[in-house]
Amino acid sequence: MSAGLIFRQLFESKSSTYSYLLACEVTKQAVLIDPVIETVDRDAGIVKQLGLVLKFAINTHVHADHVTGSGKLKSLIPGCQSVIAEASQAKANVRVKHGDKLQLETRSTPGHTDGCLTYVLHSHRMAFTGDALLIRGCGRTDFQQGSPERLYESVHSQIFSLPDNYQLYPAHDYTGQTVTTVAEEKKFNSRLTKTKSEFVDIMNNLNLPYPKQIDAALPANMVCGLQD
Amino acid sequence: MSAGLIFRQLFESKSSTYSYLLACEVTKQAVLIDPVIETVDRDAGIVKQLGLVLKFAINTHVHADHVTGSGKLKSLIPGCQSVIAEASQAKANVRVKHGDKLQLETRSTPGHTDGCLTYVLHSHRMAFTGDALLIRGCGRTDFQQGSPERLYESVHSQIFSLPDNYQLYPAHDYTGQTVTTVAEEKKFNSRLTKTKSEFVDIMNNLNLPYPKQIDAALPANMVCGLQD
């Protein structure tokens, strides 16, 4: 991954989810972060056309708003392995924890869920934050072991501690934006620039509706989106 | 623009349009390619937060599927000037033609419309192709001076002649993809890899519906999206 990077940001419109394809130009080995089951055929097609070998389908956490594509990718692409946090308690081929390296540095960033990971690609000054940090926002903390206190600590200690010019790629955006930076979020994030107690108040009073796909998504995502 | 580039790809979901913000990290001077009237407030907010000076709101062509944001941006950001092709016959502060340089190289790529331009940023190996070339596709050629023969010649002579590793950013994508390369489109574009006569046949038999927003969009876009 230290040579030239092949990088594709891919959007699934029903759940406004971003998936990220990263591959080494030399070895052609690839990973896909947060695939969505509805767009797996598109993604497998791109992998094939670019001549890549998909090694890992990686989830930043157990998603509640869409079914992961990792199980379906495994069936389409032999040799592809699913990856998720040990703390998620979900089933996967590889269960990782804070500090593990998959060529990407793994940082534990709980608060939206217990098993939230942020993946950092230092060679290209990029981090993939899942739902821990969104552009000018963050994931909700009112279900799936959510905790505003833990989320605040995670973002400040694990993401805002990265260099200012690191590009941050979230798992979702609902406004058509695609990327942000550490410097921008430290300055303009409407929630995480507050004090911790203000942040907790904000998060505890969002009064959000029950997530539409959660009852189908959570059981499916605990087993990679497909029963083996 | 030769120093570090600030680059943002921005999506408008109603018309599946991409806008592109490009700015010099040193001078902070910025251009916005293909703004959409619905997302102008978002875009002006990003320009402001990043401390940029928006010099030009640039259109790749007179769009038929959405109203351009260039007029509204001019009213929100004093000093911002609108740019479009001379061949479009639309009203704008600056009317450019093939070969002009706005720090971006201007390439005439007619066929979807007469006034279609592709903007090339050689320093960063990027080109913004408007509707002349889409990811694995191209713009339609059945209205607004459309001509499949001219589009085929434009893409082959002006876009496929760029180096293989140039990244191509289209004005639209309907599948959630964000970028492609010259090499990929030369190999995998389902229409433009055909012979010219096959391409003309395909384009003349698409039987597409009349564009939903065209009757409102065309007159508005001939005057930058706003009456002065």
UniProtKB/TrEMBL annotation, chains A, B:
Q: Which cofactor does it need?
A: Fe(2+)
Which GO molecular function annotations are given, in alphabetical order? metal ion binding; sulfur dioxygenase activity
GO cellular component: a single term? mitochondrion
Q: What is its EC number?
A: 1.13.11.18
Identify the keywords attached in UniProt to this record, alphabetized.
Acetylation, Dioxygenase, Iron, Metal-binding, Mitochondrion, Oxidoreductase, Transit peptide
Instruction: Provide the protein's localization.
Output: Mitochondrion
The protein's annotated catalytic reaction(s) are: S-sulfanylglutathione + O2 + H2O = sulfite + glutathione + 2 H(+)
The protein's matches in Pfam families, at most eight in alphabetical order, are given as: Lactamase_B
Chief place of localization: mitochondrion
This protein's record includes keyword Oxidoreductase: yes
Report the record's Gene Ontology biological process terms.
glutathione metabolic process; hydrogen sulfide metabolic process
Q: Which InterPro entries match?
A: Metallo-B-lactamas, Mito_Persulfide_Diox, POD-like_MBL-fold, RibonucZ/Hydroxyglut_hydro
The chain positions of domain Metallo-beta-lactamase read 16-172
Q: Signal peptide position in this chain?
A: none
Q: Which family does it belong to?
A: Belongs to the metallo-beta-lactamase superfamily. Glyoxalase II family.
Assembly and interaction partners? Homodimer. Monomer. Interacts with TST. May interact with RELA.
Q: What is this protein called?
A: Persulfide dioxygenase ETHE1, mitochondrial
Organism of derivation = Macrostomum lignano
